Amino acid sequence: MILAAGKSTRMKSDTPKVLHKVAGLPVLRWVVNAAEALNPDEVVAVVGHGADEVRKKFTDDKLTFVNQSPQLGTGHAVMQAAPQLKGFKGDVLVLAGDVPLLRHDTLTRLLKNHRDSKAKATVLTAKLPDPRGYGRIVRDTSGRVLRIVEQKDLSAEHAEIEEFNSGTYVFDAAALLKRLDKLTTNNAQKEYYLTDVIGLLCQGGQHVGATLTDAVEVQGINTRKDLALCDVAARSGILEDLMLNRGVTVLDPGNTYIEAGVEIGRDTIVYPSTVIHSGVVIGERCEIGPFAHIRGGTKVGNDCKIGAFVETKNAIYGDGAKSGHLAYMGDVTLGKNVNIGAGSIVANYDGKKKHKTQIGDGAFIGCGTVLVAPVKVGKNAQTGANTVVPRGKDVPDDTIVVGAPARVLRKKTSGE
Ligand code: UD1
Ligand code: CA
Fold it and tell me: How confident is the prediction for the chain on average, in pLDDT?
């Protein structure tokens, strides 16, 4: 069960918090992926604030959406989903829609601890010297969990507690349902707190467990500052995976921005100040950057080069294709060993629509060429410096064109 209905007041945004992006993916996408990776019987997402917008982003997922309106707190959110749990005997994992970086290993460990200890609930916790904003885990003198106290309800006696609630829990379904009816809004925020279910279970003599993990992983997003912290952590994990598991050289990880869902082949080198968006695929032994901006839909073969101040979007690079400097390659297919001279662009947008360009194997595009899409440049063809190839004026194979607009200069001699 994923709670994603909240108003996100602290983000000061017109966009629902869970649709803000972390390393290129909506916050809620990370949470949904984490839930789906556990192969649950069902995933229920509680939505409310911006519900329609949120639903639209997840039409391909097997999610059951439940509406919460008005939003009266996390406990109230779970109440709205309670009908989905009627008759269900088993464990309910509750995830907060605004906690994106939970690792699969941690969630399986949480579930295992919960089942092994036969607890009615198990909370995922972490520690910080000053866990401001989070609910604190109150334990008795023998270390047993007693309840969770929210930041806004915190009294001096609990001010020193370092252990906090990640907003992630496993509940026995029946035990959860029974306590939901007992929640009240008798607290500082006048909300139904899901966290109070923990206290109610303990008061009733039930065992509640806690599983500890590290604080970075459970970083929640309440403000833009939290969003930035999560983004940095997510991207550093992505770079670590590329370096340690995929054999990619990243020269300056602190200045390299690679989003989630990017594939890069072995022995490719990524130079600093490069931005690579979700879904991009790059082959082996390529050189990328410095200062390259590689946008969605770009697929790069092996032994390619995308150098300084080159932007690509929906660009297919055949093996050995190179655009070394200062270029825009949008909605274009480059054949094998195509060379794009400095300052060349594909004018893919006519003000209304985007159009495609094809450049054949071995073509040589001279510096400062403008290819006005839609247009085709033939195999082994060549353009002179500052050529403008107008839309539809396809350049035949093995032909050199020059000028603005381009005119045929001559046919190439064989082997040229
Ligand atoms: C909550 C926990 C806190 C924990 C923290 C971890 C409660 C009362 N507090 O606080 O103990 O340390 O998460 O990040 O649960 N939501 C709804 N409907 C609502 C309210 C919230 O669906 O009516 C959703 C939000 O969209 C969000 C999640 O529940 O994804 C958490 O809500 P939020 O208001 O951010 O709770 P916190 O104050 O962070
Ligand atoms: Ca939160």
Answer: 96
